[in-house]
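Support case: user asked for a sample of complex input and structure output to validate their parser. Sending the pair below.
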Amino acid sequence: MAKNKSEKLDSLLRVVTAFAFALIVLSIIIAICGHNPLEAFYQMFRGAFVGKFNLGSTIEDFIMILIIASGYSLTKRIGYFNIGLEGCLYVGAMFTAAPGFLLPDMPSFVIIPICLGCGMLAGAIWSSIGGVLKSFFDVNEACVTIMLNYVAISLTDYLLNNPWSAHSAAPETPHVQAAAMFPKLPLAPSRASWTILIAVIAWIFVYFLTFRTTFGFKLRHVADNPRFCEAVGIKSKLIILGTVMLSGALGGLAGGCEILGVYGNFMQNFSLNSAFYGILACQLVRNDLKLLPLSALFVAFARVGGSGMEYYTHIPKSLIDTMVPLLVLFIGMDKFFDWKRWMRHFKRKSVGKKPIDTNC
Amino acid sequence: MEKIVEMKNIHKQFPYVKAVDGGQFDLYKGEIHSLIGENGAGKSTMMKILYGMYDIDDGEIIINGECVTDKKYTTRDAIAHGIGMVHQEFMLVKEMTVLENIILGSEPTKKRSRNIAIDFEEARRKIQYYIDNYHMAVQLDKKIIHISVGEMQRVEIIKALYRGADILILDEPTAVLTPQESDKLFEILDSMRKNNKTIVFISHKLKEVMKISDRISVMRAGKYITTVKQSETTIPDLAKYMVGREVFLNVQRTPPKAEEVMLEVKDLYVPSERELSKIRGISFTVRKGEVVGVAGVDGNGQSELGEAIAGLRRVEKGQVILDGVDITNKSPLQVRKEGFVHIPEDRNDRGLNGSHTFADNMLAAEIRNHPYSRFGVINQKKIMDEASIRAEKFDIRPRDVSNIAGSLSGGNAQKIVVARELGAPTKKFLLAAQPTRGIDIGNIEGIRRMIDDTKRDGVAVLLISADLDEILSLADRIIVLYEGQITGELVNDDNIDEGELGYLMMGGGRENG
C-alpha cells in the first residue's frame, strides 16, 4: 500500500538481517554437530540445482508448494488459519485420480479438466466444513481443520483399500488413464511435469483475484474490520466462506497436480506434510503475493537441497529441515532487527542522562 | 501559589504524525487548569506523557521540583508523584463491583492473614471518606455494568483519589454526560479545588471551560499556543486560538420544506444487550428535506435505533418503511439499495477500515457499481479519480487518497466517512449517528454544513446525537429518547426551552414515571 520508500527499504533491511541471523544460527547448529557449514551449504545448493534430476526435483516441489501457498494466502488475508490444506490436498488428490481410472478413455483436453475439476470441487467442499463452522457458528478453525486433516487421510485410506483399491501389493489406487497425465518436463529422470503452468496460473489467479476484483476488495476488507463491512453492505460471512472454499479448491488442485503430474495414481501417505511447507512459504514472505514464487522456490530448495546434501555429505537432512522454521521464526520477529529502534533506545539512554549535570 | 508541575519543550513523534511539537504546560497547586485544542492538537498526548504512558523524544518534566525525565518515567512513577488520570474511555472491569474496581491493584490487606486476605472494611472506610468529602454518590456494591455513565466517571475519579492523587487529569470528561450530570461533575471539581487538589481539564467545549477553569492553555497542531487566565479571555478568543481563525459553530439552518414522508418508523421494538437500551415501541416520521434530531443521554437506545434502521440489528416487532418500501429486517446491502446512507456512530468501528486507503474507504459501499467495477473486475483508476474528486469536495487533508485511513485524526477520518455516504450519487435518507463526536471545531463546522446541504437537496435526515448544541443547530424537529421510549417531541424554533429538553432527557414527561 502507500508506504514510502525509506520504510520499504527498512523492512527489506530487517528481512535481510533476519535471514542472516537464521543462517548464522543454522551454521552454529551444523558446526556443533561436527560438520562444516560452508561445505553443507555448498552441497545443499548442488543438491537442489545442479543436474537434471536435482533441478527437476526442486521444480516438482516448487509446483506443489506454490499452489498450496497461493491457496493459503487467500485465507491468511482474512485471518483464517487454514491448516486444513493438507486434508484438502488428500481429498483433492483422491478425487482427481478417481475419474482418471473410473471413466472410459477420453482425449487429454477432456479428461484433464474433468479430473482437476473434480479434485478442486472435492477440496472446496472439504474446506467448506471449517468455513461454515467458522463464519456461521464462530468455531475456531485451527482445531477443526487440523482434526479434519486426519479424517481426510483416513478417508482416502479407506477408499484406496476398499472400493478403489488397485488390488496390488501396495495400498494404492489403479493408475489413471494415460491421456490424463501431464507431459513431463525435459528433465528426466526427475518427475517434474508441465503442471508448473498450472501452478503459475493458480498464483496469477490468486493475485488477480485479491487485488483486481470486487471479491478481492471485499476479502481484503473483511480481514481488517468485519463490522465495517457489515455497515457498508458487504456480506462478510459469505465472503469468508467463499474464500475458505477457494483456498480448499487450490489445496485440491495441488493434490491433483501431484497425481496427474507426478505419481499417476493415489498412494497411501503420498504427501507427508507437504501442505505444511506451502503454508511456511506463505508465512516466510508475510503473505506478500509478489514474492510468493520466490519464497516457494526457496522452500523447495531447502527441502530438496537438504536431501541432496545428506546424500553427498552424510550431514543428516533433519538439520537442514530446521532451516525453514528458523527463518520463519526470525522473520516473524523482524521488528527485533529494527536497528533504528535500537539506535533510538541507546540514544535516549544517553540523552536522558544529560539533565542530571545541567538543569536538575 | 506554588508551581507543582512544569513540562518544557516536549516533543513526541508517532509513526505518522508529530503529536506534540514543542509542548509546554504548568500547574499551580489548587487550580483547575483547562487544556483545550482541536482533536489531534496533542492535548491528550501531552497529558498521557505527564501520566507516564508515553515516552518523550525530547523535553523535560519537572514534578514537585524534581526532574523526572532523567530516567525512565512510567505510570507507576506518576502515581507515586500523586498524579491520577481519568481517561476518555473508562478503564473499569465491567463484571466487578464498584468497590472492587476502586481497590483493584492496591488492595488493603489484613495483617493477621499475612497480607493475603483483602480487608474490605478498611477499603470501604477509606472510600467513604472521598464519597462524603466530595459528595460523589456511588453504589459500592453494584457491578459496573449496572451503573450509569456518570456514575462510572465518579468511580474513576474516586479510583484516582484512592491511589493518592493530588493532581487529577480528566480527559474530556463531559463528552458522555448530560447537561445535568456535567453540572454535578463541576460541583465535585469545585469542592476538590477547595480541598487544594489540582485539576487538569481537557476539553473542547468552550462554555464549560469558561465556567470551571482558573487558567486555560491552548494547543494547536501539536504546538503550544498560549495560556490565559479565565478572567481575561472570552469564548470567541479561545475559539480563535484553537482554530487559528474565526469560527461559527452554529450553522445557519435551512428552513425545512413540508414535503412527503420519506422514513416511517411504526411501533418499533428492538432488543438490546442492555436493559435500558431496548427500544420499546416508538413511532415517528422523517420528511424529505427535514432533519429530525434524536436527543437523549447516551445508552437510552439511540445506537439500537440506528442499527435497527440500518439493518445491522434485528427488529423484534414493528416496521421501518423507507420511501414506501418495507426495509424491516432487510440486510444492510438491501437497505442501502433503497437509497439509505449512514454515518455510523463509531468511525473506528463501523465507519472506517483503518488499514486501507482513503480511496478504498470512500468507495467501499459502491464498489459493485459501474464504473468502479465491471463483471467483478475493479477499475482502480476510476476509483482513484472519483476518490480524488471527493477528497477535494469534502476537503479531506491530506488530499492524496492513497494514504492509509488509520493515520488520520478524528476530523479528517470522519470526513472520509462523510465523503463515502454523502458522496453517493443516489440517496434518499441519511442516518447520521454522532456525526461530530470527538472531532475538532473546524471540522465540526464543516460536517454540520454538509449535513445541512444534504437536507437542502431534499434528503431526509435522522440525526442521532448526544450533543445538544448539535441537535439545536441542525434539527427542525427534536424527539427525545429515554430508556427506549420517546418522552417528547419538540419543534426547534426560536422559543425552544432547553430546560424542557433536559427534563425530557432525564425521563420527565413519561406517563408512568
